[in-house]
TrEMBL record:
It holds the Pfam family Neur_chan_memb. Residues 350-385 are annotated as: Disordered. The chain crosses the membrane at residues 265-283, 319-342, 405-424. Residues 368-379 have a biased composition (Polar residues). This is Glycine receptor subunit alpha-2-like. It is a multi-pass membrane protein. It is found in: Cell membrane; Membrane.
Length: 425
């Protein structure tokens, strides 16, 4: 063997030895850190005992586990009228005691949290522990959909205080159903519920109770104003196979009516009032008397067609629009009756062929005879003026005179009744 071959063989052997040594070093490093990671996950830092059943609730002396629930509403959005739901973004907290847990053996490797009390030991765990610990199985009964907020990272963690008190925190985005009543729309007040119920653990195993149920002060909803937030504890849901603990939280909304007053109520009110001006226009001016109620009627019908709701029952805003249409239609009907009276008076005059012996509706109501003037002078001033106003020679003029007072009076009585109806809770 020549020297060159010998050198090449030695280099190959040296390369193999160095590579094996590097691989052995890397393997030792990986095994060391893998054992640490495995010990951290499998042995749970010594928190869990050797025998720990995740599916068994930590009951003591046969008493059910007391689970305190907190819900803090961060964002709120009322859905459309057709879907009848609302979206919430909440912080959901659960707090319970698991006496089976024990102090960790490697607390230095854990995230220890600072507390004001030096006697309190508290440390935080990641969301992977939800597959290791017993967690109260609670669900939202009226939820359509939901998810854990993970804009950057999943907002899900645990804290353990004094080694046995478990606190779970998670941020949820939920879509909840809300059965609404629109009989008084847009003056309605809606009550939406958040219903939480135990899934697998019955009331003999676990009991739910409210700790906090509130809405954030910065929450704003343009369509509604939140009047109050209330909650109910100690309720039981009865099924054939047992009783389950449940919680109710209610949110009371009051609709903001500003845009409906400006867009619907005020315009229709003005339209109806304008039609009352027609009673002061002489009946013989037919174009003005006809065009005014017909135009108003078309405008109100257009408003009625452009309804804000699509429900199978009549609600307050529809009642308002319908009554306004009735008043305008009655105005048009009154004009038709007045025209018919004119026609009847003309036929009566043609049969008698006598000139009228009294004044028309545009005079001051006094008789041309001396006896009439003497009688009017003996009447009180107010009574004489009322008599002059209502006593006319033509029937169509009398209809207009009475309509000037009856129509506005009835309309304002309706407004008063409508206001009382929508204001009663």
């Amino acid at each position: 063997m020549n020297p060159v071959s010998t050198v090449i063989l030695l280099l190959l052997l040296l390369t193999i030895v160095v590579r094996n040594k590097i691989n052995a070093t890397n393997l030792n490093y990986i095994n060391k850190h893998h054992s640490i990671l495995k010990r951290s996950i499998d042995h749970d830092f010594g928190i869990l005992p050797d025998v720990y059943h995740q599916n068994v609730a930590p009951m003591q002396d046969g008493h059910p586990v007391q689970v305190k629930v907190s819900v803090i509403i961060l964002n709120l959005k009322i859905g459309s009228i057709s879907t009848q739901d609302f979206d919430v973004d909440i912080f959901y907290h659960q707090h319970w005691n698991d006496y089976r847990l024990q102090p960790p053996t490697n607390i230095e490797a854990m995230t220890k949290m600072k507390t004001n009390d030096s006697n309190v030991v508290q440390y935080r765990l990641t969301d992977r522990w939800r597959n290791r610990l017993w967690i109260p199985n609670v669900y939202f009964r009226n939820a359509v959909s939901g998810s854990i907020s993970n804009i950057l990272t999943p907002t899900y963690y645990f804290t353990i205080t004094n080694y046995t008190e478990v606190f779970m925190a998670v941020r949820l985005s939920l879509k909840l159903t809300c059965h609404m009543n629109f009989y008084k729309f847009p003056f309605d007040t809606q009550i939406c519920y958040m219903n939480l119920t135990s899934t697998s653990d019955d009331a003999n195993t676990m009991r739910l109770s409210w700790n906090i149920f509130r809405i954030g002060s910065h929450v704003d909803e343009s369509e509604f104003t939140v009047i109050r937030v209330d909650h109910e504890s100690n309720c039981l849901k009865q099924y054939r196979f047992g009783s389950y603990s449940c919680l109710y939280g209610s949110i009371v909304f009051k609709r903001n009516i500003g845009k409906y007053v400006i867009k619907r109520l005020v315009p229709s009110f003005i339209i109806v009032i304008i039609t009352f001006i027609g009673f002061w226009i002489p009946t013989n001016i037919s174009p003005a008397r006809t065009a005014l109620p017909i135009t108003a009627l078309l405008a109100l019908i257009t408003q009625q067609i452009q309804s804000d709701l699509n429900v199978s029952y009549v609600y307050a805003l529809q009642i308002w629009n319908i009554v306004c249409i009735i008043f305008v239609f009655a105005n048009l009907l009154e004009f038709a009756i007045a025209l018919y009276m004119i026609h009847c008076d003309q036929e009566l005059k043609s049969k008698k062929q006598d000139p009228p012996s009294t004044l028309t509706m545009w005079n001051d109501g006094k008789d041309n005879t001396g006896n009439g003037q003497q009688q009017q002078q003996h009447r009180p001033t107010l009574k004489r003026r009322m008599s002059q106003h209502f006593q006319t020679t033509t029937r169509h003029a009398q209809i207009d005179v009475y309509a000037r007072y009856i129509f506005p009076l009835l309309f304002f009585l309706f407004i008063l009744t409508f206001t009382l109806f929508v204001s009663i809770e």
